[in-house]
């Protein structure tokens, strides 16, 4: 049982993290009892499991994920949606409306057109076919106000914070609405355009400094110092 | 006329590649590397990038992806496709090199791809493509190995899961001696060149080429020497990858400390 890293140390691919009966967690692999990192990230030991939190990541959809997508093509019965992933998602008309519509008579562009952003949920994805989305659930649908910010999906947990602490802090201080997509796209809306702009700056700051401890304190300080005139 | 030109070239041949004191043409000892420098994240457009200087070699590597693969029929159902392009810019050598990919560059692209593929978890991203571009800005012998070294750092910078970084170096035979990290003159006039790429912490070799004639003992000695060089390069790679984040950390801590 030997550990070769200190808690939350930056590690690189191929770095030997531990020898012994530890459990390999996320972003590590093992050869026998040797555990190695597979990415550039922060190494952590929790409950005898070794994890590496990546500093950069590609979004791979998973069923149940809330994502923010951009319509890139409108078909007769479906939309193609860019979800900031190597896999283009498909939103079928049957997953878009509570009441079935007659696609022979209606043009889908009326509902979502090319360039529109939508909040959607991933229905299915098994890597052999493109992911399917749904907007039938509560909180889903087209975005027609506010702004969408894009960050690396590896930083999404830091935007949300432990049990949503970071996001609720920002929401309450700035009185903004925020929806965080698992794919790294974040929707921000406020009646006060300055608050909206400032939230975007905070999100960018969190993305940049996510790996440096004391993040919550820095964000708190930034929130206290700001004066937003209506 | 033409025969006299050839004889002039022969006369220009360096009289000695290793002098009486055991120093090589550029003053190095047989087991000495040229100075190595690696920088990470030099291209903002790319998902991952790296720049390497190995002596007078200057090489940039850029990684894009994983991304959707077009045309779709080229996609593999169980893993990502690694597309690799090794290229030398026209001004990278003294006599202008045609910018079109030569036979040599096409072959090196394949060889480099095969040296990197074992290190990547390509099966994590089925049906996608990862693009890797290696652009040689200045060449001075050993560009394929320096290219592999830079490329694996760029892949790690792009956040692509890897078993290990791949570090590479050439060894060779010059005036009967096994030497590390051949420069251009040694490569041209020496008796042999042997590029080696390894995943150092796993101890696996992913590329081994050779020209020239070696005895079994010489091969053993060459691999031993290559491993020593690779370990040094590996350390530089790891430091370069960490440096980007450690510098930002210092910057933030200083700024926060002032307040």
Set down the secondary structure blueprint.
The complex is a heterodimer of chains A (230) and B (259).
Chain A: E1 2-3, E2 9-11, E3 16-19, E4 23-24, E5 28-31, E6 34-37, E7 41-46, E8 49-54, E9 66-74, E10 78-82, E11 89-92, E12 117-124, E13 132-134, E14 141-143, E15 147-150, H1 156-160, H2 165-174, E16 177-180, E17 185-189, H3 193-209, H4 215-225
Parallel strand pairs in A: 4-8, 11-13
Antiparallel strand pairs in A: 1-3, 2-7, 3-6, 5-6, 7-8, 9-10, 9-12, 10-11, 12-13, 12-14, 15-17, 16-17
Chain B: H1 2-12, E1 36-40, E2 48-54, E3 57-68, E4 81-88, H2 103-116, E5 128-138, H3 143-157, E6 167-174, E7 177-180, H4 184-189, E8 192-199, E9 204-208, H5 216-258
Parallel strand pairs in B: 4-5
Antiparallel strand pairs in B: 1-2, 2-3, 3-5, 6-7, 6-8, 8-9
Helix pairs in contact in B: 2-3, 3-5
Outline the structure in words.
By secondary structure, chain A is of the alpha+beta class. Chain A has three domains: 2-54, RNA polymerase II/Efflux pump adaptor protein, barrel-sandwich hybrid domain (OB fold (Dihydrolipoamide Acetyltransferase, E2P)), CATH 2.40.50.100; 66-143, Nucleic acid-binding proteins (OB fold (Dihydrolipoamide Acetyltransferase, E2P)), CATH 2.40.50; 147-225, Ribosomal Protein S8, Chain: A, domain 1 (2-Layer Sandwich). In chain A, 19% of the residues lie in helices and 33% in strands. Chain A contains four helices and 17 strands. In chain A, the strands form four sheets. A five-stranded mixed beta barrel of chain A has the order 9-10-11-13-12. A four-stranded antiparallel beta sheet of chain A has the order 1-3-6-5, with no helix packed on it. In chain A, strand 9 and strand 10 (78-82) form a beta hairpin. In chain A, helix 2 packs parallel to helix 4. The longest helix of chain A has 17 residues, at 193-209. The model of chain B has no long low-confidence stretch (mean pLDDT 93). Chain B has one domain: Ribosomal Protein S5, domain 2. In chain B, helix 2 packs across helix 3 and helix 3 runs parallel beside helix 5 (216-258). Chain B is globular and about 55 Å long. Chain B contains five helices and nine strands; from the N terminus they run H-E-E-E-E-H-E-H-E-E-H-E-E-H. Chain B has helices spanning 2-12, 103-116, 143-157, 184-189, 216-258, and strands at residues 36-40, 48-54, 57-68, 81-88, 128-138, 167-174, 177-180, 192-199, 204-208. The longest helix of chain B is centred in the C-terminal third of the chain and has 43 residues, at 216-258. Chain B is an alpha+beta fold. In chain B, the strands form two sheets. A five-stranded mixed beta sheet of chain B has the order 1-2-3-5-4. Chain B has a four-stranded antiparallel beta sheet with strand order 7-6-8-9, with helices on both faces.
């Amino acid at each position: 049982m030997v550990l070769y890293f200190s808690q939350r140390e930056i590690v690189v691919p191929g770095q030997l993290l531990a020898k012994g009966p530890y459990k390999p967690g996320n972003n590590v692999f093992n050869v026998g009892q040797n555990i190695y990192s597979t990415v550039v990230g922060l190494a952590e030991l929790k409950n005898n499991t070794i994890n590496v939190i990546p500093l950069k990541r590609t979004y791979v959809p998973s069923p149940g994920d809330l994502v923010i997508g951009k319509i890139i093509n409108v078909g007769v019965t479906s939309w193609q949606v860019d979800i900031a992933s190597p896999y283009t998602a498909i939103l079928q008309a049957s997953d878009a409306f509570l009441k079935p519509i007659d696609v022979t008579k209606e043009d889908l562009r009326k509902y979502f057109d090319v360039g529109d952003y939508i909040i959607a949920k991933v229905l299915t994805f098994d890597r052999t076919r493109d992911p399917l989305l749904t907007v039938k659930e509560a909180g889903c649908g087209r975005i027609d106000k506010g702004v969408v910010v894009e960050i690396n999906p590896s930083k999404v947990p830091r935007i949300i914070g432990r049990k949503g602490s970071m996001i609720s802090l920002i929401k309450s201080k700035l009185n903004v609405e925020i929806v965080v997509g698992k794919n790294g796209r974040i929707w921000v809306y406020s009646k006060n355009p300055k608050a909206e702009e400032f939230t975007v700056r905070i999100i960018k700051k969190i993305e940049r400094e996510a790996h440096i401890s004391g993040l919550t304190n820095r964000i708190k300080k930034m929130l206290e110092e700001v004066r937003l005139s209506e | 006329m033409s025969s006299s030109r050839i004889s002039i070239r022969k006369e220009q041949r360096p009289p000695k590649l290793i002098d009486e004191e055991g120093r090589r043409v550029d003053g190095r000892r047989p087991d000495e590397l040229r100075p190595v420098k690696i920088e990470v994240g030099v291209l903002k457009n790319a998902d991952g990038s790296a720049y390497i200087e190995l002596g007078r070699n200057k090489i940039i590597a850029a990684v894009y992806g994983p991304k959707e693969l077009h045309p779709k029929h080229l996609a593999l159902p169980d893993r990502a496709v690694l597309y690799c392009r090794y290229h030398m810019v026209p001004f990278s050598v003294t006599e202008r090199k045609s910018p079109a990919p030569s036979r040599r560059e096409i072959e090196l692209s394949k060889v480099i791809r095969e040296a990197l593929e074992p290190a990547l978890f390509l099966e994590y991203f089925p049906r996608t493509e990862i693009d890797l571009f290696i652009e040689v800005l200045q060449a001075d012998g050993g560009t394929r190995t320096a290219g592999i070294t830079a490329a694996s750092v760029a892949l790690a910078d792009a956040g692509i899961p890897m078993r290990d970084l791949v570090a590479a170096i050439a060894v060779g035979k010059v005036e009967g001696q096994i030497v590390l990290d051949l420069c251009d003159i040694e490569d041209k006039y020496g008796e042999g060149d042997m590029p080696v790429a390894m995943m150092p912490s796993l101890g696996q070799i992913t590329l081994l080429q050779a020209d020239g004639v070696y005895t079994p003992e010489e091969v053993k000695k060459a691999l031993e020497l290559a491993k020593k060089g690779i370990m040094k390069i590996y350390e530089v790679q790891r430091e370069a990858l960490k440096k980007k984040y450690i510098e930002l950390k210092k910057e933030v801590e200083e700024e926060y400390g002032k307040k």
